[in-house]
Amino acid sequence: MTRIDAKFAELRAANKKAFVTYVMAGDPNYDASLEVVKGLPSSGVDIIELGLPFSDPMADGPTIQLAGQRALEAGMTLNKTLQMVRDFRTGDNTTPIVLMGYYNPIYSRGVDRFLTDAKNAGIDGMIVVDLPPEEDGELCIPAQKAGLNFIRLATPTTDNKRLPKVLTNTSGFVYYVSINGITGAAAADANDVAPEVARIKSETDLPVIVGFGIRTPENARDIASVADGAVVGSAIVNEIGAGRPTSEILAFVKSLADGAHSA
Question: Which of 170, 182, 190, 194 is 20 to 30 Å from 228 at the Cα level?
């Protein structure tokens, strides 16, 4: 059982929904980013998605792209991202961390070496947005053999024919992208999300977490009420990009967490 599996078991036992946050590793620099990441669990975050900076983030909108650029300009690398996880683990051995990014940096490092290093650093799962199910032999299956969850994205365009293929070999949870397009492009609507979550849950026992377009505590509450939890990314990254003090960023995160947990 991974930390992700254990967290969802804990949440189910407490009849609570999950609150998941995304932040870019190294944005705006290593120390400031680590300070925010370390503060997330005490602000109500159940699972941390940690972005791996990449120079060609094709699925990301301007907010996440700029965060990646800031991180890269500050010298962030895959090695430093793994070090950030190790530094986080010195004070927290229970909060799950999902590394989210693209395949190129992993491929460049070598899959076997990367998986060993990621597992040893304390990463629990992965979302690799540019590897479809047809390429499961590249990373998904090796990752699961290494004890890491491999989390797949489903979208409004994932029809009933495609959905079983997407769910094959998925573990940890299913990430439902509530809107078409890039991150930060529109607002999520619980009325649209609810039937899609039900459709996915008819095909899997995995938790279904909904992300994209969630910016307020009310959004988080409404989306979590029709799913197993909510993900907030761009809204938090915007606060980081605006240069807010860590205390203000974490206070905003707590308000979002309170919204999701009230569902």
Answer: 182
